[in-house]
Amino acid sequence: MAEQHELRDKGLRLTPQRELVLSAVRSLGHATPEEVAERVRQTHPGINLSTVYRNLETLENVGLVQHTHLGHGGATYHAAEEMTHLHLVCGKCGSVGDAPIDAAANFVQNLADDYGFKTDVTHFAIYGTCAACVEK
Amino acid sequence: MAEQHELRDKGLRLTPQRELVLSAVRSLGHATPEEVAERVRQTHPGINLSTVYRNLETLENVGLVQHTHLGHGGATYHAAEEMTHLHLVCGKCGSVGDAPIDAAANFVQNLADDYGFKTDVTHFAIYGTCAACVEK
DNA sequence: CGCTACTTGCGAAGACCTCGCAGAAAGTGC
DNA sequence: GCACTTTCTGCGAGGTCTTCGCAAGTAGCG
């Protein structure tokens, strides 16, 4: 796993802040910069919000995390390993559900064939109403 | 078409600003509040940004326009009549292409069947790379 | 151990959106 | 056509979220 080296391998320095931001994103699944900062503060109270923003950006540049806009204002970040499923955002309760990429395979193929549009499935936010809210 | 009455019918007053905001959204297809304001200023220079925001909100409440988040920061608005197609947002050039809803019919059905998730196709932004940028 | 380049913390600045208020205007009845 | 009530507009203040510049700190390397 060589956890220690994955950042170095990308040409980045190994600072406590950087590691914490990355592990926060991984453990949270998907989170806003604010939430990441909050998580990091549990073990490193002095971290600055700017640092979180900058590290998220840096980590995104080397492909370890990625961001999406799940509907409302801010961006949410998730780890690259997490990108194997779609995000189903519920407009009513705000929850974020998951579905395997396969569910969209057909659709993606359609768009590629008919419009030459190469859908980025990993950067995919789907808006609608979740099962729980539909019942209400 | 009784253009004059569609606002009145919804219980709204017929102000020049309101009409202009609505027609700006319609002629722009999809636009940010800022872009709407700019368009309106062509015929009504004095309009205030707050007024644009408030009218967009009001028009959304009565169902004449709707907003989506097409990826980056701000919301974009479009007329209700325009909601018969999907929006294909290109991450490279930022263009917004269209595709008929049918292209997603399969996909929507999948999600409904397998996850009970009721996808809101009209509020749907799809991220990827457009044909033009794929070639580059 | 010392040097260089990259990072952090901090405060300021900027973008974007919302809110409250007073004056103006639309719609209504006479 | 006129006065009245209610809604809307313009304006400025206030908030939130994000970015930026700078000086001090520290990781990595010989």
From TrEMBL, chains A, B:
This protein's record includes keyword Repressor: yes
Cross-referenced InterPro entries: FUR, Fur_C, WH-like_DNA-bd_sf, WH_DNA-bd_sf
Alphabetical list of Pfam families matching this protein: FUR (PF01475)
Keywords: DNA-binding, Repressor, Transcription, Transcription regulation, Zinc
UniProt KW Repressor keyword: yes
Species name: freshwater metagenome
The protein's name: Unannotated protein
One biological process term in Gene Ontology: negative regulation of DNA-templated transcription
Similarity remark: Belongs to the Fur family.
Record-level Gene Ontology MF annotations: DNA-binding transcription factor activity; transcription cis-regulatory region binding; zinc ion binding
